[in-house]
């Protein structure tokens, strides 16, 4: 547990399920104030908020589309109204999109992923930076990326491109605001056992995916959340512009083990 996080306020986008929900709940265990964001899953958001409250934190749920400035503003308005400001911004919302070869991908399928994964992350970070600069807050922006910011993802060029963009966005923003005491970092999960991970639903796909992971196991959302808690705490005070991979070694070229 990180004592310095107690009483601080975080916005976690896309926190009604999966990794986002695990991060929001971990922040509850740290006794933080959490703005739980959802778009369609109000029940999941309510579950996360209830967990946070029972763990000793405080929570409010907000329905908002993070790919729009209005949606992002709604999250900051709620944080200001209920908790008085924002110390931590976690840009977690994202999705894979439809698989297709690049030459067959529609502009619509490309744009949907870019709008949420890249534009949504930019808008969340931009709003957080403005908020922190205006208040003199030495806060933290944490972007949730993917191993696919480094590993190409065939038939999912829009997703890999979006995560590569988040990597460079994180590094550039970190460089811009380091002298203001605002840290900008990213976490890049590998294959995490969430309810929406299609690779784990079919046994054949599951075994194929395990071969890509040197630790021969899938990650848990709670393990990503543990990394997030450290990254936004004062124990990581000297860390900015960094991507922390939580991937069981997936980015270590496991094919090199084959003989």
Indicate the topology.
Layout: E1 9-12, H1 18-29, E2 33-38, H2 42-55, E3 58-63, H3 69-83, E4 88-91, H4 107-135, E5 140-144, H5 157-177, E6 183-189, H6 203-210, H7 221-232, E7 243-246
Helix pairs in contact: 1-2, 1-7, 3-4, 4-5
Features:
Rossmann fold, 259 residues, globular, 14% strand, alpha/beta
| Count of spatially separate domains | 1
Estimate the mean pLDDT confidence: 95
Radius of gyration: 18 Å
Structural class: alpha/beta
- Please provide the count of β strands: 7
Rounded to the nearest angstrom, the distance between the terminal CA atoms is 43 Å
Strand arrangement across the biggest beta sheet: 3-2-1-4-5-6-7
Main beta sheet:
7 strands, parallel
Shape descriptor: globular
Look at the structure and give the CATH class: Alpha Beta
CATH architecture annotation: 3-Layer(aba) Sandwich
Total of helices: 7
**Percentage beta strand:** 5-15%
Low-confidence stretches: none
Explain how this protein is built.
- InterPro entries: NAD(P)-bd_dom_sf, Sc_DH/Rdtase_CS, SDR, SDR_fam.
- Pfam families: adh_short_C2 (PF13561).
- This is General stress protein, similar to glucose 1-dehydrogenase, survival of ethanol stress and low temperatures.
- Belongs to the short-chain dehydrogenases/reductases (SDR) family.
- It comes from Bacillus amyloliquefaciens (strain ATCC 23350 / DSM 7 / BCRC 11601 / CCUG 28519 / NBRC 15535 / NRRL B-14393 / F).
- By secondary structure, the chain is an alpha/beta fold.
- The protein has one domain (3-249): NAD(P)-binding Rossmann-like Domain (Rossmann fold, 3-Layer(aba) Sandwich), CATH 3.40.50.720.
- The chain contains 7 helices and 7 strands, in the order βαβαβαβαβαβααβ.
- The chain has helices spanning 18-29, 42-55, 69-83, 107-135, 157-177, 203-210, 221-232; strands at residues 9-12, 33-38, 58-63, 88-91, 140-144, 183-189, 243-246.
- The chain has a 7-stranded parallel beta sheet with strand order 3-2-1-4-5-6-7, sandwiched between helices.
- The radius of gyration is 18 Å and the shape is globular.
